[in-house]
Amino acid sequence: MSKITSLHVVWLRNDLRSYDNAALHHATAAANDEQNSAVLALFIATPKTWQRHDMAPIRQDLLRRRVLQMQTELASRNIALMALEASSYSDCAKIFSKLADAGMVALYGQTEYELREQQRDKEITQQLQRADITVNWYDRLCIMPPGTILTQSGDTYKVFTPFKRNWLSRLHEQEIRCYSKPKASVLVDVKQLMQQLGVKEMADGDGCSADWPVAEQQVLDKLRGFCQQQVADYNDKRDFPAVKGTSRLSAYLACGVLSAQQCVNRLQMEAGPALEREKSGASVWLSELIWREFYKHILLAYPDLIKHKPFQAETAAIRWRQNKTLFKAWCEGNTGYPIVDAAMRQLNDTGWMHNRLRMITASFLVKDLQIDWRWGEQYFMSKLIDGEFAANNGGWQWAASTGTDAAPYFRIFNPVTQSERFDPEGDFIRRFVPEIAHVQGKEIHWPHKKSTPSGYCPAIVDHDEARKITLAMFTEVKKSDG
DNA sequence: TAGTGGTTTTG
DNA sequence: AAAACCACT
Asked: Which UniProt keywords are present, listed alphabetically (predicted)?
């Protein structure tokens, strides 16, 4: 075989899949078109940057496991995946200059919307273009890319429902296309290339995400299974944490084993007509995918969000309580509110939390403990296997009433009412708060009525009182703003 | 035609 | 209360 003289490099980040991967697809097509040309997929682990972004250890481990799995999957398609270990994003530049010397002719990748990531990509782009290397970015993180869904006056939507209406009308105008799995003709010898470049191989993770399978086919089967068997009941079951009513695909969307395009494509295939029915399981699940895009669009349009500025400027003046003791109790699931404690322990024990519980615990931290939503935002990121800036920040600001969407009511959840409504039998609470598992019947939602069961913590705050304090805090900043 | 004001909608 | 739409200019 003749010597490889040109490399088409695919930089994988949060698009760790071989199906429907635009970058991989185009790089392979280009390489197959040329003589002595090969595709090289590249992943660079950057634990220092990950840590600075509070990326949960379980999410880091999932990334590493997925990359190793993908290495095998891609090799069978004649595509080598070089998995490297660096420290932070600034080290990526050195790797690319070495690749440029080794015959790299083009770079392919999927765009990302966070500030540091955009800076990183901009710098690498400039560096490579100076060396006459073609750089191709594909904006496929969303089905409808930011900038394509605007109000009639050309503004970014700040309210979900009109955004969704617009988004859906676009969906009806077009067919969602997914790229096929690429196949190259020449396989690069990665071991040799790594030696030649003098770069460090990616380290293994600690395996803490082992409960989450990483084989691409297995994940696609999960998606298909969900769309065939569960999505029909999604609207009826999704709010009950004791029931497996949600897709549990968020972690795979976050690291891109699945694309949103694949999700909607599969949903249309399996649930077709139901999608046209309002409140059908299929259309409600689609709404959740649209929420994901809504927050990504918002993030790109309001870059201050990445600096943790509140969307509603006047709420920056709120003086949140800096109480480490109360915060710790919330983190550890020792608030004395069973549904809150069960939820936080689910997060701590499994790296994942049911969406209904994310709203309940967020509301509790902000509206019952008056603690800065940013503390909660950061804690969630540091624990969640599916933590992504846009959705996490959007969700927290929604719960904190500092974000988009100006509803005329004030959003304070009553944790006991929420518990009664969404964990009616207390099954979920008993699973995660064993010290009150023996409490019979509806008392499980509020076991303090007679006296707090031994081994369980008393309530750290009185909800009705806390509610009044919070309302006053918001009234204060609203009136000083005029 | 882009700006306005009045009306409807809002996770 | 604020956003978005819509009709009118």
From this structure: Chromophore, Lyase
Q: Summarize pLDDT for A120-168 with one digit per residue, the tens.
A: 999 999 999 999 999 999 999 999 999 999 999 999 999 999 999 999 9
Domains and their CATH numbers in chain A: 1-139 (3.40.50.620), 141-179+216-301 (1.25.40.80), 313-481 (1.10.579.10)
Residue A451 Cβ < 7 Å to strand C: no
Count of alpha carbons within 13 Å of A369, Cβ hemisphere only? Answer: 29
The C1' atom of B6 and the CA atom of A37 lie apart, in whole Å, by 64
Q: Which residues, other chains included, contact A99 with Cβ-Cβ below 8 Å and sequence gap of 6+?
A: A7, A9, A40, A42, A197
Supply the pLDDT for residue A296: 97
The pairing of strands A134-138 and A37-45 is unpaired
Residue A212 is among the residues annotated as catalytic for this protein: no
Does residue A161 reach within 7 angstroms of strand B, measured from its CB? yes
Which token pair is A179? 């790229």
Can you say whether the dihedral through the CA atoms of A104, A107, A108, A113 is positive or negative? positive
CB half-sphere exposure, A350, CA atoms < 13 A: 15
The answer to whether A291 is a known catalytic residue is yes
Model confidence, pTM: 0.96
Which bases of chain B are under 7 A from a protein CB atom? 9-11
Which nucleotide has its C1' atom closest to residue A405's CA? B10
- In eight-state DSSP terms, residue A83 is E
Summarised one tens digit per residue, pLDDT across range A56-88 is 999 999 999 999 999 999 999 999 999 999 999
At A412-455, the pLDDT tens digits run 999 999 999 999 999 999 999 999 999 999 999 999 999 999 99
Cβ < 7 Å from strand C, A residues 392-411: 406-408
- Estimate in Å the CA A363 to C1' C8 gap, whole number: 44
